[in-house]
């Protein structure tokens, strides 16, 4: 493999592992770990820990747990929220390890980029699933969950076997995410405001603001 091909392969693995981690971290660990342990995937030495049977076993257990939780409306969003603190750091670590034996500065840079990519895919998944949870039927959640698993498997396979194609698709994903995330945030903000209004939190805030404004006005009149 020439230097150009090696660079593309490393870049695809780095971005692919971090991108997929933001969607389904345990599937990524399981695929890379099993692939490395069976010599079907040539992992960098820094990621060889994924081949350890304990790591593979833990990833398999957590994948099964997520497989079922991810299909229950409401519970899937709670799971995604908790995994904000898991997927993003793990994506950064996988990206840092995927670049192989490089300088510490390069490793840190890869980790920063990987964390950002994992955060982007995680935010896209979380926002989309929250939007789907407004639908009362569970079929949409099942379809979305299975589609995400297939997307992760297909993305990793493409990154490992056709790195240039993956990088092209990855750039397209980043562009779509930049366009979609503000819309998802607007939707999520609307949901949060409706929840706050339902529990009286929004009205209470408005009332407090009104009282504060009234007190300020009264103090001005008294000063005059």
TrEMBL record:
The residues that cross the membrane are 6-37, 49-69, 160-181
Q: Which Pfam families match?
A: DUF4126
Which UniProt keywords are present, listed alphabetically?
Membrane, Transmembrane, Transmembrane helix
DUF4126 domain ranges (all copies): 11-183
Q: What is the protein's name according to its record? A: DUF4126 domain-containing protein
Organism of origin = Nitrosomonas communis
Recall the taxonomic lineage recorded for the source organism.
Bacteria, Pseudomonadati, Pseudomonadota, Betaproteobacteria, Nitrosomonadales
